[in-house]
Amino acid sequence: MPPVNNTQLTAARPEDKNLGVMANIAYGFQHVLTMYGGIIAVPLIVGQAAGLSPAEIGLLIAASLFVGGMATVLQTIGVPFFGCQLPLVQGVSFASVATIVAIVTSGGGLPAVFGAVIAASLIGLLITPIFSKIIKFFPPIVTGSVITTIGLTLMPVAARWAMGGNSKAPDFGSMANIGLAAFTLLLVLLLSKVGSAAISRLSILLSMVIGTGVAWMLGMVDFSKVLTGPIFAFPSVFHFGAPVFEVAAIISMFIVVLVILVETSADILAVGDIIDTKIDSRRLGDGLRADMISSAIAPIFGSFTQSAFAQNVGLVAVTGVKSRFVVFFAGLILVLFGLMPLMGRVIATVPTAVLGGAGLVLFGTVAASGIRTLARVTYENNMNLIIVATSIGFGMLPISAPTFYDAFPDWFATIFHSGISSAAIMAILLNLLFNHFTFGNSDNQSVFVAGTADRTVRPLVVQALNEGDYFKDGKLFDVEGNEISVVALKDGQPPVHH
Fold this sequence. Notes:
Blueprint: H1 6-10, H2 21-49, H3 54-77, E1 90-92, H4 97-132, H5 140-163, H6 175-193, H7 197-201, H8 203-217, H9 247-275, H10 281-301, E2 306-308, H11 310-319, H12 324-339, H13 341-347, H14 352-374, H15 384-400, H16 410-416, H17 419-436, H18 447-450, H19 459-463, E3 470-472, E4 475-477, E5 486-487, E6 496-497
Antiparallel strand pairs: 1-2, 3-4, 5-6
Helix pairs in contact: 2-3, 2-4, 2-12, 3-10, 3-12, 4-9, 4-10, 5-9, 5-14, 5-15, 5-17, 6-8, 6-14, 9-10, 9-11, 9-17, 11-14, 12-13, 15-17
């Protein structure tokens, strides 16, 4: 019998374990560093598309940090009907970028964007009961395919980070950037091997700090602008104007909200699988409602749609730190950064290449977690291998060919341009088609399935056969051509011919 862990006696669920203030701050800061580049990317892109000044773009960034922190606090701690109480970091969803830029550049401006986000998020809030019921359509074959796709779709992000992040920069893809990313990756691996559990769990954070220090010594980091700008600043309410509600913009944004609901559902299920805790429809619904109410409130302060950050799912898997209180502290740190632009500017000095080195491990771990889930699936004499192969392949289409859906209708392209949504939709549909709606399924399944494993027969079945029995057209006959009846055994055993 394995030894009893005392921490298991004090927490009914692994996510409820509280590590203490100092550990929560350290591990929470690690989460912030992991997702910081992602959370500031959207306001940067949108601000540039809207023609805002650097100071105004700074306001968008501060608002995104503040709202992301508040949404993370709500998701991790939870209140009745809102928050799944899982270690999930919330932030501005990248799925909305294309739609937001389209609304801004078509003449609607930021007020039309904010109005569309508010309206679409409230509609999304109303339909969360429908989405929360899809939990029964997420067996391991679906969740494993989706989790694997999440990790694989993030790999191009890690590659761009390792190359420098900005494709227009003269040093993009330089050996200096890639070398720094490789150095950070090596640090992560070495620190993960250290005997100390604390150092191993903080390997990502320590590697980023050391990597940044090395980059500074090589002249690749500029701290000169850290003190430029205010130290404290509260996000302004409707700084860019009151929201404007335009029907076309709302419809476009609602499609984005559907994508976010699918992606957040996948992330919630992925975290639940990684930390080995139960996720039911009620808990999933609470998480989705937290997502939607955060998205509806975000425009008030100048931010956009919120969703769970997949890269932080990888951090949970790498470190093994399952506590939601760690991510709660990460939320508090994000709120502080939103109120203290000075701290945000300090974190912004971390070279993107350093993030790339750590990201390779983080995102790869997500994919590996999905593969581990898929290992629990049975592939003999069924279509499960085809379901997995098609789902992951479908999810890879927009990653390997970003322009694949350019000729499709806008609503279709918006949904399937996300590899995560593509894989989730395909996995659910194929699982229903082959494993639920079994009418019409062939006795001799696909040739691909026939080659996956040797066929096996239970000894009990063999014992029921006589010399000369043969199988034809789905029926069993004896040596004289008489059909042998099928009798179901008790206790759920398979039928036997006799």
